[in-house]
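2 proteins. here.
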Amino acid sequence: NKNFSQSCFGLSSILYSLCFKECVAYRIVLSKIFKTMRPILSILIPTYNRSRYLEHLLSELNDQSQCLPSRLHVEILISDNSSADDTIDVIKYFCSINRNMSFTRNSTNVGAEKNILYLLDKAQAPYCWIIGDDDMPIKGLLRNIVSLLSVDSPSLIYLKSLWASDIYLLQSKP
């Protein structure tokens, strides 16, 4: 029906294409759909010269974000404040394996506050979580947060922190 297809052009065109295209085209279309979907949570990571800790944080967030339902995806934004160590290499690696991670690198150190404000400005989700580059979320925390956000729509979530002299000790906590 001509009128039906004109009124439902966007979604019906995509669905129509999916019915008649090969699997490769299907994956491309799905990728475009997910890229245009607004994330439910923006995880904001300001960083400066802490590649050792950042690597463990990004690894954990990568693992936890891969387990989320596609309709509840998160974006992970990292802003490097002109680190002199190998922070940028760590960031580039994780951005290459997780399509929901992206980064920027300041040409000079702009200070912590401006680095955080930049991330807040770039966030696309209705909720933001600012997490330090030396922090470590416990296993399953991201799934619990995203579930809570999607069901209850809270104004604020307070996360009680655990402290250890070495963040690697926290990775084994349930």
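next one coming up
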Amino acid sequence: GVLGLDIDGDTLSFTQISGPGTITVAENTARWKWFPECADLGTYEVCVTVSDAVHPEADTCCFLVTIFENAPVIHCSTQVVHYGETVVYDIAFEDDACPSVPTWSLVSGPGSIDTITGRYTLSTACPDVGTTPVTVSLFDGNRADTCTFDVVVENEPPFVECPDDIYGLKVGVT
């Protein structure tokens, strides 16, 4: 809060002369409050004056308030598939209540990402076997977040098919 001091102990009077929000006064202290909304993004100067009934001159206190949107937060996790399968990954994220149209981008790695939905896709083949890092970014119009996750493409283990049991095979005949 804005603390007013008076050496004589006179009762102080506070007045907000500029800026958003409101002040309330209790025990020679002015408390400033404001509940900004998305349309209020930016920096504002708030000025408050203090005076007493005995002295006509007032003192002024000004301070800056900056309202900003929080950056989105991406939640990535490792994706595991067998070669020949397609990775389809709807990447989770959080963003604050300010309306915006988020824009996704593939920063590095194979595959593609839908720039609006954040759906990552990768069609895999045998040469993709192994672990590959993929980095994506989300920009919400004001701020951005980046996340790296691994795509693990596994190789199928070899297998053999055995014939049914064979009975009655004659010696010397294959």
